[in-house]
Structure formats: structure tokens, C-alpha cells
Amino acid sequence: MTTTSDPYAGSRETTEGRVYTVTGGDWDLTFGADPHGEERLVVNMGPQHPSTHGVLRLVLDLEGETVTKARVVIGYLHTGIEKNTEYRTWTQGTTFVTRMDYLSPLFNEAGYCLAVEKLLGVEAPPRAQTIRVLVMELNRIASHLVALATFGMEMGALTGMTNGFREREMILDLLEEITGLRMNHAYIRPGGLAQDLPEGAVEHVREFLKIMPGRVADFHKLLTGNPIWQARLKDAGYLDVTGCVALGVTGPILRAAGLPWDLRKVEPYLGYETYDFEVPTADTCDAWGRYLVRMAEVNESLKLIAQALDRLEPGPVMVEDKKIAWPAQLSLGADGMGNSLEHVRHIMGQSMEALIHHFKLVTEGFRVPAGQVYVPIESPRGELGYHVVSDGSTRPWRVHVREPSFVNLQATAAMSEGGMIADVIAAIASIDPVMGGVDR
């Protein structure tokens, strides 16, 4: 028989063959034993919805209700998306990366496509860049609304949850109208966009811009002045700017610690340097400040959307290079998304060259010059960076993502240890992790 200090399983021979005796293993060594022989309570919190934001497991050491040690266990949602992109064409990779952080899919698409375009040495047309900003800022608001809604649910403010998802539904309706899908759009493609804005989309977005500021004000009336909400959030999950920088934490957590670090300002892309917007910050370093920063960012995104609509100029939404641009001419009809009938008639019945080109480009894909790039963008959760390596073939050699939820989760122990077990929930909610991005 093995002892708790033995990392290997014991074994014995029987008439049925060798039988192994397995004990608690690393649990006994890491979690169960106290070096001073003192008894302590070890609690598994999660993986469960909603308290741990999905399939996240926290292992907490407790003295009474005080957390003395916190560990994060991840990997329950692993998809292997990064590896899967190596077995698909460059364009097909878009349909994989969009499923990582499923609350901000358009940011994954944009980061990936900007990296591919940098390797190709091309730039999306101006109209495509403006529409990218438009849909990404819509997506940012939708993501922050989910952060707010789940925060409310986990703190016991159920109306905050129902209202947050109600407003998000308006944005998902707009994204469905523009891209054809509510989530996982694969709308942003290498070289531009899958299709142009459909007729009426601009007017519908302008209607949303009239409604949303009032809804944001309603959130402030419901929660910001609420003494229970303030008591649950203030001084919970404390992490100052030194701790953020040491752990690589970015996004609203870093800005709530007072550092106005936003890649749209410090390393602009897609023409963000030409837009007028502010970077909201707070100096509280706690869950309360992160809530206020996200609420302020919703208002800034509304300003960016309005500016994007005003600067929309007629033009193509995909590069002219026929070796890169898919020869699809998509139209959104009653049956969903598909090629226009005129285009299908052309490639299927009128031009053998067009049919061959279409077949080769869709099945084999285009070649990307050998090299490697790193392209960071500002997602709702912080720095989302794509390190993409090409060996000159029609598929990525490597796609690795610097995912903000994954990096920010490192802060859990720093935020939780020494605090109450109830504040762990507030700390995790204020990080706003999405496990699809963590376990990619």
C-alpha cells in the first residue's frame, strides 16, 4: 500500500495479475496536508454555473470564512481550437477562432484577420475597416452587458441580469441582420468582410443609438446608487496597478487601477487614432471600479459607433486581389446567407475558368508568405494578441493566442486571499473571464 507522501501508486500481484492501489495523489500532497500539522478546510468551488462563470474550478483553503489560499483549475472546456487551425485554410481559420471567446467573437475574427493581412502585406478597404470598427464596438457593448448581467446574478441582483440580457438582445438582433448570425459570425475575413451591410442596417443601428443611452442611465439608477450593490463591490477583489502589471493583467481591471492603457489609443489599428473617444479609468482597484469602468466604456462605444456610421463611404468591402478574395457574392435572403443567383449562374454555367478558380480557392485556399507576426487588439477583456506563423503554405503553421481571460485569471489568488469567501464571487465576476477563451 502507498502512503500519502508517496507520489506513485502501490501495487501487488494477484491471481488476476498486478493490481494498483491509487490514493489521492497530488490532492493529498498539494491540498490536503498542512506542513504544520494544522487541520484546514479545503473547499471546491465549481466548476458550475453561475458562481464561477462556467466551467472554472476554484480550490479554496478556508479558516472560518476567510480565504487563506486560492487556486484556479482550468481545462474543463478544452476545444483545441488553436491546433485545429493548422488543419484548415487561412479563411476557414476564421470560423474556428470566432468560437474562442464566444461573448466577443468579432474581436477574435478581427485579431486573426489583421495578423493574416500583415503576413500577406495587404490592408482591408476603408469601408471594410469602418464596418469592422462598427460591429466590434457593438460587440463590445454586448459583452459588457453580459459582464454586468452575470455580475448582477452572482451578487443576487436578478433584475440586473434580466435587464442586461434584454439590452444585449437588441445588439444580437443587429449583428444577426449584418452578419447572418447572432454569435460565431465568421463575418470578418482575411482581406475584408464576408459581405457589405444589408439595406436598412444603418438606420436600425441609429435607432439603437437613440435607445441605449437611456438604458445605461437606467442601470445606474438600478445599481450604482444601490447601497447593497456598493457594499458587495467596494473593497472586494483588490488589485492595484503594480499587481496588474506584475501579472500581465489588462483591460477594465488595469484601467480600474488607474492606468489608462487601451490598445485603441496606445497602439491604434483600423484607424482608431482618427476617432474621438476617451479611455475611462477609476482609482479604486476593486470590483466597484471595474463595474464603473465597464459602464463608462459602453457610453464610449456608443460614441464610436455613431462616428463609424457618419464616415461610411461607398466602396468595396474586400481586397481586389482575386488570389485572396473569395469569389463569393453573398446576399442575405429569406433562406439565410448564400451566393447571389447571378453569381452562381456565372460560375456554374458561363465561365469554366471562374468555376475552376472558385473550386481551387475554396478547397485549397490561398498561400501566405512565410513569416511570423504578433498583432494585439483591445478586446472587452483586455489585450487579445494573435501570434501567427506561416511556412508559405495554404494553412497556418501555428496560431497562438494571448487570451486576456486566461492571463487575467492569474489575479484570482491575489484578489481573493485574505478576504471573505463571499468576496471571491465578486472578484471572479469583476474579472469577467470567458472559459471558451481560457480553454482554447
Automatic annotation (TrEMBL):
<dbReference type="InterPro" id="IPR029014">
    <property type="entry name" value="NiFe-Hase_large"/>
</dbReference>
<dbReference type="InterPro" id="IPR001135">
    <property type="entry name" value="NADH_Q_OxRdtase_suD"/>
</dbReference>
<keyword id="KW-1278">Translocase</keyword>
<dbReference type="InterPro" id="IPR014029">
    <property type="entry name" value="NADH_UbQ_OxRdtase_49kDa_CS"/>
</dbReference>
<keyword id="KW-0874">Quinone</keyword>
<keyword id="KW-0813">Transport</keyword>
<keyword id="KW-0472">Membrane</keyword>
<protein>
    <recommendedName>
        <fullName>NADH-quinone oxidoreductase subunit D</fullName>
        <ecNumber>7.1.1.-</ecNumber>
    </recommendedName>
</protein>
<keyword id="KW-0520">NAD</keyword>
<comment type="subunit">
    <text>NDH-1 is composed of 14 different subunits. Subunits NuoB, C, D, E, F, and G constitute the peripheral sector of the complex.</text>
</comment>
<dbReference type="InterPro" id="IPR022885">
    <property type="entry name" value="NDH1_su_D/H"/>
</dbReference>
<comment type="similarity">
    <text>Belongs to the complex I 49 kDa subunit family.</text>
</comment>
<comment type="function">
    <text>NDH-1 shuttles electrons from NADH, via FMN and iron-sulfur (Fe-S) centers, to quinones in the respiratory chain. The immediate electron acceptor for the enzyme in this species is believed to be a menaquinone. Couples the redox reaction to proton translocation (for every two electrons transferred, four hydrogen ions are translocated across the cytoplasmic membrane), and thus conserves the redox energy in a proton gradient.</text>
</comment>
<feature type="domain" description="NADH-quinone oxidoreductase subunit D">
    <location>
        <begin position="155"/>
        <end position="440"/>
    </location>
</feature>
<dbReference type="Pfam" id="PF00346">
    <property type="entry name" value="Complex1_49kDa"/>
</dbReference>
<keyword id="KW-1003">Cell membrane</keyword>
